[in-house]
Amino acid sequence: MNKFKSLIHFIVALLVFSPYWLVAQDNKKLRLIVLTDVEADPDDTESMIRFLTYSNQWNVEGLIATTSIHQKTRVAPESILKVLAAYRLVQPNLLKHEKGFPGYEQLVPLVKKGLPVYGMLGVGKEKDSEGSESKYWTKIMTSRSGYRFGVVPMY
């Protein structure tokens, strides 16, 4: 009976820890666009910093400054750029621990401004902004075959 238990344990361990399972995982990154009302609250900047410490997990497609209930008439892309400037200093250290962190030069062009109006006032004809520019996003979303479209988190 002990030999049978040992055999079962061995088979289970082989299946669980087999390199096949590690290789067979889908390693394609999700494509991500971040909308943020950075500067509305301190936690928005903190969330952007936290996001950048995981930025190697995504294909970052856009970092868009938006309005919110707490910041209805202005957007602050300059604050995203300040966070990216700090990220530039720590990115080499992040790369020592794991590969794939995008460079500062790669992220800066992704910073865009939404309209500095709140809610539905910013929707409709003649309401385009850098952040909603349809030609830009159509190009981004159709230019990279093989990448999966991900999510659009807002914070």
Verbal overview:
The protein has helices spanning 2-17, 19-23, 42-52, 77-97, 104-107, 134-143, and strands at 30-36, 58-65, 111-113, 148-149. It has 155 residues and is of the alpha/beta class. It has a four-stranded parallel beta sheet, covered by helices on one side.
In short:
This protein has 155 residues and is an alpha/beta fold. The protein is built from 6 helices and 4 strands, in the order H-H-E-H-E-H-H-E-H-E. Helices cover 43% and strands 13% of the residues.
Tally of extended strands? 4
What's the alpha carbon Rg, rounded to whole Å? 21 Å
Amino-to-carboxy terminus distance: 57 Å
Put simply, the count of helices is 6
- Describe the largest sheet: 4 strands, parallel
The global form is globular
